[in-house]
Amino acid sequence: MSYKFFENKTCEYYPCHKAERINCLFCFCPLYSLSCGGNYKIIDGSNGGKIKDCSGCLLPHTDGGYEYVVGRLKGDNENDRKTSDPERGQGA
């Protein structure tokens, strides 16, 4: 087993995305508050504010996702650290 990938098929929420293999390492995406580059939508939250809906994103859950997430967290893109508004992201 690699430290970069594991699949938790016993999780009550599995599968949480539509994919053949799901990397559960980043069950909650650490890029949520950043301009992540993933396939997300901006929707209305229950409190009336805007939130990211990442249910259509497989970026952190696929092969190469670990390297992508770690690269973003290390600041490979300087603008990522400055983005706290989900509407500034690159959602679909």
Automatic annotation (TrEMBL):
Residues 3-81 form the Cysteine-rich small domain. It comes from the Bacteria. Residues 73-92 are annotated as: Disordered. InterPro entries: Zf-like. Pfam families: zf-like. This is Cysteine-rich small domain-containing protein. It comes from Candidatus Monoglobus merdigallinarum.
